[in-house]
Amino acid sequence: MAQTFTKAMARNIFYGGSVFFFLLFLALTLDTNRTLPELDNRAAITEQVALGKRVWEENNCIGCHTLLGEGAYFAPELGNVYTRFGNSKEAIVGFIKSRPKDGIPGRRSMPQFNLSDEELEAIAEFLKYTSEINTAGWPPNTQG
Predict the structure, then answer these.
(1) Is 10 buried (19+), middle (13-18) or exposed (0-12) by CB count in 10 A?
(2) 27-58 confidence digits (pLDDT tens)
(3) Which residues of 17-50 are buried (b: 16+ CB within 10 A; e: fewer)?
(4) What is the model's pLDDT at position 144?
(5) Which residues contact 54 (CB under 8 A, 6 or more apart)?
(6) Could you say which DSSP state residue 77 is in?
(7) Would you place residue 2 in the very low, low, confident or very high pLDDT band (cuts 50, 70, 90)?
(8) What is the pLDDT of residues 75-88, one digit of tens each?
(9) What is the tens place of the pLDDT at every residue in 101-138?
(10) Which residues touch 130 (CB under 8 Å, ≥6 apart)?
(11) In sequence order, what are the residues at sequence separation of 6 or more whose Cβ sits closer than 8 angstroms to the Cβ of residue 30?
(12) Is the peptide bond before 139 cis (omega within 30 degrees of 0)?
């Protein structure tokens, strides 16, 4: 039974598909809005967190590290570094301060950025803030 594809059939497929995908879009949008965390439950971005983000950007940390899955994969994920370091900003500051001047020869390592104490505290506060974001289980393991 050979049927020709008519303009009416094409129009019906177009309108039917458009309605179907519009309804699918609405359903997925409603589902997303229902599962997103409440904005009021998040900690406010303080001046110190904002300074930490500026330090992060000025030193191009994302050129080596990932943060919540975004960035380069040369160095570890830092979205959960606060948890990995035992919920201690002092441990993060100590790790950054302990980096050798030119890195460790023969292996990839983080260089010394010679950040001020204020900048170190700010970057630690920024990393603490990012670790408290609900990422639905990302990164999948504690190593990042």
Answers:
(1) exposed
(2) 999 988 887 765 545 667 899 999 999 999 99
(3) eeeeeeeeeeeeeeeeeeeeeeeeeeeeeeebbe
(4) 61
(5) 122
(6) B
(7) low
(8) 888 988 998 999 99
(9) 776 777 888 888 999 999 999 999 999 999 888 777 77
(10) 67, 68, 78, 79, 82
(11) none
(12) yes
Token pair in block for residue 88: 């201690």
**Contact between 62 and 72 (Cβ < 8 Å):** yes
Q: For residue 66, what are the β-bridge partners? A: 71, 77
Cα radius of gyration rounded to whole Å, the chain = 24
SS3 of 43, please?
A: coil
Q: Are 130 and 67 in contact (CB under 8 A)?
A: yes
Task: Say what the pLDDT of residue 91 is.
Answer: 95
Q: How many residues appear in the chain?
A: 144
Q: 113 is written with which tokens?
A: 């950025």
Hey, what CATH topology would domain 44-131 get?
Cytochrome Bc1 Complex; Chain D, domain 2 (1.10.760)
Tokens encoding 137? 């289980």
* Paired tokens of 76: 């570890």
Query: 16 vs 21, 22, 53, 70, 75, CA distance in Å?
Result: 9, 10, 47, 38, 49
DSSP bridge pairs for 67: 70
